[in-house]
Amino acid sequence: MNIDQIYTGCLAHGAYYIESNGEAVIIDPLREVQPYIDRAEQDGAKIKYILETHFHADFVSGHLTLAEKTGATIVYGPTAKPSFDAHVAEDGEILKVGDLSIKVLHTPGHTMESTTYLLKDANGKDHSIYSGDTLFLGDVGRPDLAQKAANLTQEELASLLFDSLREKIMPLADEVIVYPGHGAGSACGKNMMKETVDTLGNQKKVNYALRADMTREEFIKEVTDGLLPPPAYFPANVKMNKEGYSSIDEVLHMGTRALSPAEFEVAAEESEAIVLDVRHQNDFVLGHIPSSIFIGIDDNFAPWVGSVIADVNQKLLLVCPEGREEETVTRLARVGFDKVLGYLKGGIEAWKADGKEVDQIESIPATEAHHRLEQEKLPVVDVRKYSEYEAEHVENALNIPLDFINSKMAEFPKDETFYVHCAGGYRSVIASSILKSRGYHNIIDIKGGFHAIKNAGFIVTDYVCPSTLK
């Protein structure tokens, strides 16, 4: 028996490969499927099943492409209604994989079709569960994402999740291993642990949602309390996972077209594409194509693209670090952004060499910002999450989280220069680039973010100003 957890940090996502006696299953695969095919070939195994725990909202699964390339059967749990050929399993159904058995446990609550897969070893002993977004480490799946599809309230879905956990998962033995669909950083839960595997017994001790004496009412209150609005791209990803999508091969073929500066400029003008610059923020502030948006590839790239661009059908043109063009297109496709028209050949240096206009963002060290603010009191805008701001922030700073920048654009100062910062410098440059593309040119970025600010003499506080935005 071989079990591999294939964890993708930028999406905080766990896919799984299980092989026994020449047969394999893949659970919740990502969009690019060749690594799974290569892994099976390495073991001399045939992929028999592609198990989907639910219709994912935070990424586009590779189930359709993988099924097309391998002939494997796509499996969903009860009540699922995909628009393509798939096996909709019954609750309690057993799937055979080599010498192993996988039992289908219908665990609705996160979504109605949510399913946990229980792996039994060759002797029939319970070994591990693959819980998708039903059970995380330290948390459970949020019950507000499928309200419209289920025609239920989040409280009603939470009540179903309460029953699923207590009737299907908690009765399992403590030594059963828990392999969740996501870890810390995912927007599918609130309080996930940084670890990506644990025993069910330990989760019964540390996971608030598995407390044995918890009442249904307490569970519903805790699970629904403090839920932030989901990223705007989530519904589009659900639709793609349920109804289908273009082949990743087609997306890569289109997206990795190399365009000269002249071709790039024409494409931007004719297509109304957004120019997305994925270099490091320090490079972007020094010089970038006017009106381009910065979202760096080396951080939580794809989730931030989905949060601030939102429309997965938006056409994009890329400015990438050399050699990372295919990686960028792939990571965009993971969250449904398939309309990449190509990338700037030679990058920003080729753009400059062609005599084309370059813009900059004023970005200064925190020590210089502190000195300037002592001379002239100007607004400071903190684009961190509200929870970060609430813990500690610059005195009198306005909090406008990056997540909500599109709906809160009018809250940014228009008639005077203002400073913007985040925790480390990544989100503030994203915010600054979006603001500049919308006509705000009175921005000064504080380099290094709040980490640098605390060491630069700024007065910080945990008092929450009534004017801040939650």
TrEMBL record:
Keyword Hydrolase: yes
UniProt record, GO biological process: glutathione metabolic process; hydrogen sulfide metabolic process
Gene Ontology molecular-function annotations: hydrolase activity; metal ion binding; sulfur dioxygenase activity
Keywords in alphabetical order: Hydrolase, Metal-binding
Keyword Secreted tagged: no
Database matches in CDD domains: POD-like_MBL-fold, RHOD
InterPro entries assigned: Metallo-B-lactamas (IPR001279), Mito_Persulfide_Diox (IPR051682), POD-like_MBL-fold (IPR044528), Rhodanese-like_dom (IPR001763), Rhodanese-like_dom_sf (IPR036873), RibonucZ/Hydroxyglut_hydro (IPR036866)
Residue span, Rhodanese domain: 269-360, 374-462
Protein name (record): MBL fold metallo-hydrolase
